[in-house]
Amino acid sequence: MLSFVSYFEPCNNIDMDLENSKAQLKKGILEYCILSIISRGEAYASDILEEMKESRLIVVEGTLYPLLSRLKNDGLLSYNWVESKSGPPRKYYQLTEPGQLFMAELSHTWNDLVSAVTHIIHKTKINN
Known about the structure:
3 strands, about 15% strand, 3-stranded antiparallel beta sheet, disordered N terminus
């Protein structure tokens, strides 16, 4: 006989697995989205956060700043300080030349991936 607790354990595991899968999908495209925003022109971190929020891809500062630092250390981003009339200077990020090449490759890979996934999920089942 199944106990009440063991009956619901698989659901809890499925819920945890689903949340983990969703988080991994978002994490996997986060770098691409951030680089895409910066590729359009210099970007301030709070502007990146705002655009991500508007797109319903919520990112917190504790995630964004380490990623920006890593991308800068990898040579894909540079930044400059711009004086602000309403506070301390602001750090604006831009793609370096290697960052532009990296972004172009990511875009190509993204387009291929979207095409492949779209093909798979929209393919109709053929009945025998």
